[in-house]
Specification:
- The complex is a heterodimer of chains A (about 375) and B (about 270).
- The radius of gyration of chain A is 23 Å and the shape is elongated.
- Chain A has helices at about 85-95, 115-120, 140-150, 155-165, 180-195, 210-225, 240-245, 265-270, 285-295, 320-330, 345-350, and strands spanning about 35, 45-60, 60-65, 70, 75-80, 100-105, 125, 200-205, 230-235, 250-255, 255-260, 275-280, 300-305, 310-315, 335-340.
- The two termini of chain A are about 35 Å apart.
- Chain A is built from 11 helices and 15 strands.
- Chain A is α/β, with parallel strands linked by helices and about 375 residues long.
- Chain B has one domain (about 5-30, about 90-265).
- Chain B is about 85% helix and about 0% strand.
- Chain B is elongated.
- The chains are: A alpha/beta (about 375), B mainly alpha (about 270).
- Chains A and B meet through helix 2 and helix 3 of A and helix 1, helix 7 and helix 12 of B.
- The complex binds adenosine-5'-diphosphate and magnesium ion (MG).
- Magnesium ion binds next to helix 1 of chain A.
Chain lengths: ~375, ~270
């Protein structure tokens, strides 16, 4: 199986354009059916996580409502949604910490309810709260986990020391974690979640509370882990920037319901037919230029923009023809840049469909500091 | 049901004990109370017996049914005070030690995990609910018994040494003491633990657990103090019976606790 990563152009969220919420072709009811796009899957993909109608009710109501997804090995799944969407509940259910009130799940082929300990031996979790005992040193905290995970003696010590060192915490190994910063705690907790080289890694808000530098470091660490063969990573977050950088698949939750699931690019293709591109013409395109663009085969839409024009085309292959047409009209073309939709664009498109009767998808923070689109 | 995984259980016990040893709020009462009860009090009694006339003791003893006080009344008058206090009255008071130590440690082990926000990461570890419960139980029970026994050894040494000029023989432990040490004290430790296990399920902080626990445990302490002041001077069969009742209640409480101690229940209250 191949990761989706290679195919998607990596874009720096700082440079990316504001989400363009073009009109969607799929009309949605008040309670939307989830938009699920998994047609890219190969039949041979080994599924690591599978849920079927997975639900969990608390006294207040459903925290998770009939979640049905499957995640192949080697993928990073971004579990997105505002606070209270049900992300943490999902992780707890998938790791057998909570029991579902309806539905089932399988993780690594195991039933989290009946085979929880067996499953937890093979999964690692970075909880939202680092969960370090402040009366213990960094090293003691990790050694405890190593021992519960069946390591002992010298191998346990050297594994712990190695991890602490490679997470840049070496000089604090023998200090109590009491005075540690949030970033240091996260790093230590991340190191701890990797002690046993887990096959499935759950990361619950790995960068919340971190400053930009620490966020960058943690994201780089996760990116390194995620590319390792055969591992699946579930990344819960409400920071879209980091999710966009890491995720092969995205699942959008809102008040316990799945709104969308699939690779961001595939979902984007469902939401927005065609590819958007920007043409740098040195200045706003004239009406005749726009007309000329519209007349090219494969152009779905065109309008002028401050530095030229924005076009929507059926595919990349249309762009050279566009440029040729412009050049034939003696219009200088400085650049033609495809603008593939990002995870952020998809997220806000999905979010934009939620009826505005409640708190909606507030609380979402963009990695690049822009405001949520209307 | 699978066999307990002792490596995991040991890891839990070792971690909690290391952490507890560094916590002043726990170590202070855990040392102060035993020292007061088992060293200062018997030492004071021994000094009093050496210096003062003890005729008041006979009057005190005369208020009880004859059978109960036989072992003391038969003694020479100058020995009566010391045997009464160190041989009999401190014995029930001594039970405060295992009760307090196990309750304080159990509150830290069960409610403290929630308070320190370490519970969730703990629940994501491959340790079964039962093993986690066993570990947490031992964290409270073993030190409670250890502190009691160590305290008793100190008590015996202090009592016998300081009272030697009066007694000219070893008079502690008495048969009553032996029952207290090996039968009632561990039972009381289990009882304190059982109460706190139940109470901690409702409490979110150690302090809350201690307050709730105190509401249950304080009446027991008053009972012990009441006993110590001579309202209920126990003899050996009564001590054996009290121990049996304590164990029964403790095991019932712990049994109920273990049934409710499931990951799902714990995670619901994180
Ligand atoms: N133990 C619990 N008891 C009652 N309600 C809960 C509990 N855990 C979660 N919830 C509720 O379930 C919903 C989803 O919570 P959660 O999974 O923590 O969301 P997220 O991690 O996406 O922020 C929230 O409305 C939350 O209040
Ligand atoms: Mg959460």
């Amino acid at each position: 199986m191949r990761s989706q990563r290679g195919k998607r152009p990596v874009r720096n969220p700082l440079l990316s354009a504001r989400p363009q919420n073009g009109k969607s072709l799929i009309p949605l009811d008040v309670v939307p059916e989830p938009l699920v796009e998994t047609s890219h899957r190969g039949a041979g993909d080994e599924v690591v996580i599978r849920t079927n109608g997975l639900s969990r009710a608390f006294r207040k109501g459903l925290a998770l409502d009939s979640l049905s997804i499957d995640v192949p090995a080697g993928r990073v799944l971004a579990l997105l949604g505002p606070n209270g969407a049900g992300k943490t509940t999902t992780v707890r259910l998938l790791n057998g910490v909570l029991e579902p009130t309806a539905g089932q799940s399988r993780v690594l082929g195991l039933d989290p309810v009946a085979e929880g300990d067996e499953l937890r031996r093979r999964t690692g979790v970075l909880t939202e709260q680092a969960g370090l005992d402040d009366r213990l040193t960094a090293r003691e905290n990790l050694l405890f986990t190593a021992r519960v995970r069946g390591m002992r003696g010298q191998p346990a010590s050297s594994r712990v020391d190695h991890l602490i060192e490679s997470f840049g915490m070496g000089e604090y190994a023998y200090e109590r974690t009491q005075g540690f910063s949030t970033g240091q705690r996260k790093r230590l907790a991340l190191a701890r979640s990797l002690i046993h080289d887990p096959e499935v890694l759950f990361l619950d808000e790995p960068t919340s509370g971190l400053d930009p530098t620490a966020t960058r470091e943690v994201i780089d660490l996760i990116a390194g882990l995620a590319t390792r063969h055969g591992r699946a990573v579930v990344l819960c977050t409400h920071f879209l920037g980091e999710a966009g950088r890491l995720a092969d698949e995205m699942a959008v939750l809102h008040r316990g319901r799945l709104l969308a699931f699939g690779p961001p690019a595939a979902l984007a293709a469902r939401l927005w037919p065609g590819l958007e591109a920007e043409l740098d013409l040195g200045g706003p395109a004239s009406d005749t230029t726009v007309e000329a663009l519209r007349s090219v085969d494969g152009v779905l839409a065109a309008h002028n923009a401050p530095m030229g024009a924005r076009v929507t085309v059926t595919g990349r292959e249309v762009l050279p023809r566009l440029v040729a047409r412009l050049v034939a009209h003696e219009i200088p073309v400085y650049a033609s840049t495809p603008l593939p939709k990002t995870l952020e664009d998809v997220y806000f498109e999905i979010a934009g469909r939620i009826p505005r009767d409640g708190p909606g998808l507030g609380g979402i923070e963009l990695g690049n500091g822009t405001e949520p689109a209307p | 049901m699978s066999r307990p995984n002792w490596q995991s259980i040991r890891a839990v016990v070792a971690r909690d004990l290391t952490a507890v040893r560094r916590s002043k709020a726990i170590m202070l009462p855990m040392t102060l109370v035993p020292v007061m009860l088992l060293v200062v009090l018997p030492a004071g009694t021994a000094f009093a017996a050496r210096t003062q006339d003890a005729s008041g003791v006979s009057d005190f003893l005369n208020r009880f049914p004859a059978g109960l006080t036989d072992p003391i009344v038969g003694l020479p008058q100058h020995e009566q005070l010391i045997v009464l206090v160190n041989g009999f009255l401190i014995a029930p008071l001594f039970l405060i030690v295992p009760l307090m130590v196990s309750a304080v440690l159990a509150a830290d082990a069960f409610a403290g995990e929630k308070e320190r926000r370490t519970l969730e990461s703990m629940l994501h570890l491959p340790i079964s609910d039962r093993d986690l419960f066993i570990g947490k139980t031992l964290v409270a029970f073993l030190p409670a018994v250890a502190v009691s026994w160590l305290g008793f050894v100190c008590f015996a040494v202090v009592s016998n040494t300081l009272a030697w000029p009066v007694m000219h023989r070893l008079f502690v432990p008495t048969a009553l003491w032996a029952i207290m040490i090996f039968w009632v004290a561990p039972g009381v430790a289990a009882l304190g633990l059982g109460v706190m296990v139940r109470v901690s399920a409702r409490a979110n902080t150690t302090q809350e657990a201690n307050q709730l626990g105190a509401a249950v445990i304080l009446p027991l302490i008053f009972l012990a103090v009441g006993q110590a002041t001579g309202l209920l001077l126990v003899d050996v069969p009564v001590a054996l019976a009290i121990g049996a009742v304590v164990w029964l209640v403790a095991l019932l409480l712990i049994g109920r606790g273990i049934q409710r101690f499931t990951r799902d229940q714990l995670a619901t209250r994180i």
